[in-house]
Specification:
single chain; 314 residues; 4-stranded mixed beta sheet; disordered C terminus
Length: 314
């Protein structure tokens, strides 16, 4: 009966059990017998896999957590993978433990923290893992500001982190974790009424325009035209200039095509110029067109006709 219960536990842990868990269900002699017969296979010191159970994609990470035991949390790149943050790849299991713990496991990148607060970790897919704000703070030292900003925007769009939560973690770790200046600059650029946009393409387009010397456009700007509310991906409201990033997966259908044409006509009638950009188009072409349209527009800083809300560019 004990082995059946142990197998049930292992089924929730990628087929793995830690030695203390095994001893809760098997005597020392029974455990040694299972190991000698090959019914249990050692994968790490003090961690066993039921024979015949194929290792899952996260079995090694699970084995690390079981080997270290209470106190260890998945962190840094491994945490980013658990949170499905695009662009981050863990080349080995990565964990954080509270001081003075300091486990040494082959092939594992281990960090020690004297500031691993209860609010900084949670559970995901059965793993103890740092929260998205803490994960981003931990990664800030190794990432470029632009890539760090894209990860922040991913979290904001998916609503797994808020600026206030990121700011709180930043303040709690100040002086204890490197790279926080980069995180602070990313957060400072996203204060106020910042909107991360509906896609990474929109954010990258905005950064492209700013990098070319144009002011930062307003994301997700609402405009009334012809009695209908339209939301522009990016806009310069005082110039009545809108820029739309067209992803194929969103705009490929016939209905989307018709909607886009109808909207462009309504906005044009309201005095707006709309530029469209896709990932397959030339960045230089977009910059040239945006500069020309921005320079040709009326430079009086007055709210646009039909504008629902006014933003101060971040």
């Amino acid at each position: 009966m004990g082995e059946l219960e142990l197998a049930e536990l292992a089924s929730r842990q990628d087929g793995l059990v830690a030695r203390p868990q095994a001893r809760d269900h098997l005597s020392k002699k029974q455990l040694e017998g299972r190991l000698a017969s090959g019914r249990l296979v050692v994968v790490r010191r003090g961690v066993y896999r039921f024979a015949g159970v194929p290792p899952g994609p996260r079995a090694d990470l699970r084995a690390v957590c079981l080997a270290v035991g209470a106190g260890a949390v998945v962190s840094h790149r491994s945490a980013a993978e658990l949170w499905d943050l695009r662009g981050v790849v863990a080349d080995r299991p990565e964990i954080t433990v509270p001081a003075p713990m300091w486990p040494r496991l082959p092939g594992v990148r281990c960090h020690q923290s004297g500031r691993l607060l209860a609010a900084h970790f949670t559970t995901r897919s059965g793993f103890p893992v740092t929260t998205p704000p803490r994960t981003l703070a931990d990664l800030a030292f190794d990432l470029s500001p632009r890539f760090l900003g894209s990860l922040v925007d991913q979290c904001l769009r998916r609503r797994i982190a808020r600026i206030s939560e990121l700011r709180a973690v930043h303040d709690e770790l100040l002086g204890r974790v490197g790279g926080l200046a980069a995180l602070r600059s990313v957060l400072d650029a996203r204060e106020g009424r910042y909107d991360p946009g509906e896609s990474a393409g929109e954010v990258e387009t905005a950064e492209l325009l700013v990098g070319a010397g144009l002011p930062r456009p307003v994301p997700q700007h609402q405009v009334i035209a012809g009695g209908t509310v339209y939301v522009l991906d990016l806009a310069y409201p005082d110039r009545r200039l809108g820029i739309e990033y067209d992803g194929w997966e969103v705009h490929a259908s016939r209905s989307a095509f018709e909607h886009d044409r109808e909207r462009d006509n309504a906005l044009a009638a309201a005095g707006w110029t709309i530029l469209r950009y896709t990932a397959g188009m030339s960045a230089e072409g977009l910059v040239a067109a945006a500069r020309a349209a921005y320079g040709a527009a009326d430079r009086e800083n007055t709210p646009s006709k039909g504008q629902l809300r006014e933003y101060a560019p971040v």
